[in-house]
Amino acid sequence: MADNEAFVHRLFDAWNSRDYDSIKGSVADDCVLIDEGSGRTLRGPDGFTQLARALFDAMPDGRFHLDHLTSEGDRVVIEYTGSGTQTGDLVLNVGTVPATGREVKVHGVDIYEVENGKVKEARAYFDTGSVMSQLGLLEEQGA
């Protein structure tokens, strides 16, 4: 559906411009975001905003580029490339990664269920191991 595709484009623009109010307003109150890479589940507008702030606090130059977007009905599938330099602490559900000064580039896929112009459910898929390796964390652990 073209409206949902345009909505997701606006949402990515809000992420890239750090428009936290727009991000929050794009998410249903009862939304569930499942981060498949970490197993973390975030809920509602505050969960989405918490994730955005954590990422951009850690990587102020971070950007997301939409590589491909397709939709059918209320489901929108997004392939994207995220990149940035970790100059701040990265707060994760398993702990905090101190700033490494390293650049990260990751490809991911998000699947959104959009209802009444808001994200009702989201699943995020990206290679967490690749991110940890690029930050130098797997090398330090001898993996």
- What's the alpha carbon Rg, rounded to whole Å? 15 Å
Q: Which bin fits the share of residues in helices?
A: 25-40%
Strand order of the largest sheet: 2-1-8-7-4-3
Gross morphology is: globular
β-sheet strand percentage: 35-45%
Short description:
This protein is an alpha+beta fold and 143 residues long.
Description:
The chain has 143 residues and is α+β, with helices and mostly antiparallel strands. It has one domain: Nuclear Transport Factor 2, Chain: A (Roll). 33% of the residues lie in helices and 43% in strands. The strands form 2 sheets. A 6-stranded mixed β-sheet has the order 2-1-8-7-4-3. A two-stranded antiparallel ribbon has the order 5-6. A hairpin with a 2-residue loop joins strand 5 and strand 6. The radius of gyration is 15 Å and the shape is globular.
Q: Which helices and strands, and how do they pair?
A:
Blueprint: H1 2-16, H2 20-25, E1 27-35, E2 40-43, H3 44-58, E3 63-72, E4 75-85, E5 90-92, E6 95-97, E7 103-115, E8 118-126, H4 128-134, H5 137-140
Parallel strand pairs: 1-8
Antiparallel strand pairs: 1-2, 3-4, 4-7, 5-6, 7-8
Key features?
single chain, 143 residues, alpha+beta, Nuclear Transport Factor 2, Chain: A, 6-stranded mixed beta sheet, two-stranded antiparallel ribbon, 5 helices, 8 strands
